[in-house]
Structure formats: C-alpha cells, structure tokens
Amino acid sequence: MIKIGIIGGTGFGRADIVTNRAEIKVHTPYGAPSDLVTTGEIEGVPVINIPRHGRHHNIYPSAVNYRANIWAMKKLGATHILAVTAVGSLREEIEPGHLVFPDQFIDRTTRRIATFYEGQEVCHIPMADPFCERLRTLLGATAARLGIPNHPRGTVVTIEGPRFSTRAESKMYRMWGADIINMSTVPEVVLAREAGICYATIAMSTDYDCWHESREPVSWELIQTVMHRNAEQVIALLRAVVGEVDFVRCSCKEMVHGACL
Ligand SMILES: [Zn+2]
C-alpha cells in the first residue's frame, strides 16, 4: 500500500489539508519527533504529516531531530516522502515563488547526526543520486500540468545555520554549481535513503540569498512573506500528485540493500 509522508517546512506546517485526521504521539529510539504525527488522507490517499520545525515553528534547523522524524515515518509505514522546504535562489532564473525539485545536494552541515548506523556495522550508502528520480520527475510533470512555474532539477546546498551566508559564501556556492540554498535537506534525504523510503523535495524559492547585488538580502521576514503568499501552489501540487504516486520501479530500496557489511 502507498502511504505518503509529508514533512512540512517553514511556512508550511499545514496539517489542515489532511482529512480524517488523527494525531499520534510517536516514541522512537532517537527521542521525540518534531511534533505529534498527523495521520489521515489527502484526496483519499493515506498520508502522514510531520511539521519539521514543530507546529509553533520553534525548532531551529540544527536542532530538528531528523532521525526521529524519519524513523516515525518508517514505523508508520511511509513508502514515499514529499519534503517541503523554503530555499534561497542562487540563480537569476529561479525567481521568488518558483518551485524547484532538486536532484542533487551539497552538504555544508557540520553538527548533525546524518546516519542511523552507529553500531558495529560498517555501512556505505550509495548517494550519487540522493533523491527518488521517479518521484522528482512526477513532481515536475504535475507542476507543469498545473501551470506552476517550476525547475524540474537542481542542486541544493544545505548549510548549518542558523545564520545566513555571507556574500562571499553565496557567490562561492554559485561557482560550485549550486542552484538553491537551505538549512534542512541534509540529513533528512540521507536518512530517508537509509530507511529505504523514496524521498523528493518540493523547494519553494523565497529570495535571492545575498549574492544578488540589486535584490534585498535574505531575511526571516522575507522568507515567511513569500512562503505564505505561495503556499496555495504547494497545496495544489500535493493534492494533484498524491494520487499519481505508484510503485513503478525505482531503485531507492535496492540501493540500501547490501550496503551494510
Ligand atoms: Zn524511489
């Protein structure tokens, strides 16, 4: 059975799009998830919702218990995860309000636990293509069908935060080939891969970070304003895409299989 996990990000904790709702307190070996877990349906498809930063948005990116969130998703039977995140744009053509469905990440986090494996096993998980290709492609096609401005691939650089980048850093990330920047994709995507759950990101561009000389540098207020203004697009996309997700073969599960010696 398909069950879709939705991890809501900044400006998007919206459990109210879920019908037949129930709230569950989940205990995990890694501590508590970010909040109570909401289960229910979107368009008749079973879903699980966790607001990444808590419903009151009081958990900053470095303090999110990513392992507990992914473990809770796995425990409750999530087969796929759609992760919503606000991002800064490192490219002129990725305008505020546009959606991006990244296919690559660059990890600039420094103090997060990025694996479930900490015992005696030696595990090396393939990460050449970290996002579920099939889910990402489906998001791009569905957004295009709905007329939502989108970029069907891109590289996200995840920084530790909580501070934003300096101009020098922002320009360096552009030179590295990064297209968007945030503070939450890593280690979430890595842990989902370890858990064998297909994972794709719905990234909403909210600003031009600080590399763009003629645009206002990113601020918390700017992110919230743009995210709230465009949340309806994310909701429309989620409603349209959940019914299209299927088990047509992708290689996310196989990549983990046999990775642990
Ligand atoms: Zn997959």
Key terms for this structure?
261 residues; binds zinc ion; 11-stranded mixed β-sheet; Rossmann fold; 23% strand; single chain; alpha/beta
Strand and helix map with partners:
Blueprint: E1 4-8, E2 19-24, E3 37-42, E4 45-51, H1 66-75, E5 80-89, E6 99-100, E7 104-108, H2 133-145, E8 150-151, E9 155-159, H3 167-176, E10 180-182, H4 185-194, E11 198-207, H5 220-242, H6 252-256
Parallel strand pairs: 1-4, 1-5, 5-11, 6-8, 7-9, 9-10
Antiparallel strand pairs: 2-3, 3-4, 5-10, 6-11
The chain binds zinc ion.
Walkthrough of the structure:
With 261 residues, the protein is of the alpha/beta class. The protein has one domain (4-256): Nucleoside phosphorylase domain (Rossmann fold), CATH 3.40.50.1580. 27% of the residues lie in helices and 23% in strands. The protein contains 6 helices and 11 strands. It has helices spanning 66-75, 133-145, 167-176, 185-194, 220-242, 252-256, and strands spanning 4-8, 19-24, 37-42, 45-51, 80-89, 99-100, 104-108, 150-151, 155-159, 180-182, 198-207. Strands 1, 2, 3, 4, 5, 6, 7, 8, 9, 10 and 11 form an 11-stranded mixed beta sheet that branches. Strand 9 (155-159), helix 3 (167-176) and strand 10 form a beta-alpha-beta unit. The mean pLDDT is 92. Zinc ion binds at residues 132, 134-135, 198, 250, 252.
Brief overview, please?
The model has no long low-confidence stretch (mean pLDDT 92). The protein is 27% helix and 23% strand.
